[in-house]
Write a structure and sequence with these properties.
With about 300 residues, the protein is an all-alpha fold. The chain has helices at about 5-20, 25-40, 50-60, 65-90, 100-110, 115-125, 135-150, 155-170, 180-195, 195-200, 210-230, 235-255, 265-295. It starts with a helix and ends in a 12-residue tail after the last helix.
């Protein structure tokens, strides 16, 4: 239920950042909005580093300007995020920076998604046991992550890449529709039927058309957006803040558990680049058309006899 609010603050902060030439006062506002985004979803914790890197690259003049801008951004951002740290320190006497779930998500990324109860069983700890020390659970998670990652680093990396690819290729929310799976029905049709009547019958499944629309929207954005990323690579310095959204969430979920829902923040950016791809292709086609028209041989005038 947090995605809507998170996307509002995340893209609100990005919009403010690109809206005008940055000043220290303006970067205070950007840092505050991005801080609210992190208070909504802790996975966003390190993203302001992308903005700071962009400031270093683009705001060298006047001399030393980038230092003031980065300082204003990170100090404000840190002040907002620290409210959760201070709250936990005072109320619960524990150190929490951003959120507590990072180690758990890393463990699930290595061993597979699990409910809190299943996770406690796998770690041989009990959240219901009186006097159960939170530090004991953290230590069990840390040891589990070390064993999973360093015990078989190649297998771990292979598993992470496959899970991330699956999360990108599976549109979010299609699994929540009732009735028979369209993918299962398609597989059955390919193996057992392959007739036109069987294909028509598949379109009568309760969830076929809504899922088809979701798949079309999902892959159109993914493919066109990737094309836009490739076509605009020469402008990477200007586009780094929005490129950074895709790079950041992809990189984070190489380590943390990857689900389609967790990659939702990348899709608005893919559609931005999809629009860019359409515009760039259209402009190139128009320029080529203009060049072809300029080099086309002139049609000789038709001379009509008066007789």
């Amino acid at each position: 239920a947090s995605e809507g609010l998170f996307l509002l603050f995340m893209f609100g902060g990005l919009m403010l950042y690109v809206q005008r030439r940055p000043t220290p006062r303006w970067m205070i506002l950007v840092g505050a909005v991005l801080g609210l985004a992190t208070l909504t979803r802790a996975v966003f914790l390190l993203f302001p580093v992308v903005i700071a890197a962009h400031l270093v690259l683009t705001q060298r003049e006047p001399r030393g300007q980038w230092r003031r801008l980065v300082l204003a951004l990170l100090l404000t951002y840190g002040a907002f995020v620290s409210t959760w740290t201070i709250y936990n320190a005072i109320i619960w006497d524990r150190l929490v920076i951003g959120g507590e779930g990072f180690m758990s998500m890393t463990y699930q990324g290595a061993e597979g998604k699990a409910s809190p109860h299943e996770l406690d069983q796998a770690l041989d700890v009990s959240a219901d046991e009186p006097g159960q020390d939170v530090r004991e659970r953290r230590e069990a998670l840390r040891e589990g992550v070390i064993d999973s990652v360093f015990g078989d680093p190649v297998g771990w990396l292979s598993h992470r890449v496959k899970e991330l690819a699956k999360a990108y290729l599976q549109p979010h929310n299609t699994v929540l529709f009732g009735g028979k799976s369209v993918k299962t029905a398609m597989g059955d049709w390919l193996r057992e039927d392959r007739s036109l009547d069987g294909l028509v019958n598949m379109t009568r499944l309760e969830s076929f058309w809504p899922k088809l629309l979701l798949y079309a929207f999902h892959f159109a954005g993914l493919l066109l957006g990737t094309a836009g990323l490739v076509l605009s690579w020469r402008r990477w310095r200007d586009l780094l803040p929005v490129w950074g959204v895709i790079a950041y969430f992809t990189g984070v979920h190489v380590v943390l558990l990857a689900l389609p829902r967790y990659l939702i923040p990348t899709y608005p950016v893919y559609w931005m680049f999809a629009a860019l791809a359409v515009v760039m292709v259209w402009e190139r086609w128009q320029r080529r058309r203009a060049v072809d028209s300029a080099h086309a041989p002139e049609t000789p005038p038709v001379v009509r006899s008066r007789t």
